[in-house]
Amino acid sequence: MTGSSGWRAGELSLIDGTGEVDIAPRRADGTLRPARIVWIVRHGDAVYIRSVNGTTAAWYRGVQTCHEGELNAGRLRRGVAFVEAGTHAGEGSGLDDALDAAYRAKYGRSSSAVTRITGDVARATTLRVGPA
């Protein structure tokens, strides 16, 4: 069954159970940039990623070119679209707060990486990832 986000239930479960995924943004000419490892969280039937290094990270800048790419999560390999999300996209702090809680639940509360991925610099890069 496919949810309103376009993800199938099995894909959402696989993504939810995967700690790190590979994201390869698409260049303007259609080729894929080198894949980068990112953390991914689920909120409802949607999935989200952030750049722990903010808007200066090469993969995040690459996403801005085309807003398309490829996601690899375990045995799942899927073309995806990236959509700006979060407070900076006018969705309000409720989504960012929910995603912060999802990151803490999935990756732990006490690590410095979780502190960074839930901070303002990373929040400003929140992307909803959906099937292309």
Account of the 3D structure:
With 132 residues, this protein is an alpha+beta fold. It has one domain. The chain contains 5 helices and 6 strands; from the N terminus they run αβββαββαααβ. A 6-stranded antiparallel β-barrel has the order 1-2-3-6-5-4. 30% of the residues are buried. The mean pLDDT is 91.
SSE class: alpha+beta
Number of helices: 5
> What about the largest sheet?
6 strands, antiparallel, barrel
Q: How many structural domains are formed by the residues?
A: 1
H-E order: HEEEHEEHHHE
Spatial arrangement of strands, main beta sheet: 1-2-3-6-5-4
Beta content: 25-35%
State the helical fraction: 25-40%
Q: Unreliable segments (pLDDT under 50, ≥5 consecutive)?
A: none
Structural shape: globular
**C-alpha Rg (nearest Å):** 14 Å
Oligomeric status? single chain
Give the secondary structure arrangement, pairings included.
Layout: H1 9-17, E1 20-25, E2 36-43, E3 46-49, H2 58-66, E4 68-73, E5 76-84, H3 93-107, H4 112-117, H5 120-123, E6 127-131
Antiparallel strand pairs: 1-2, 1-4, 2-3, 3-6, 4-5, 5-6
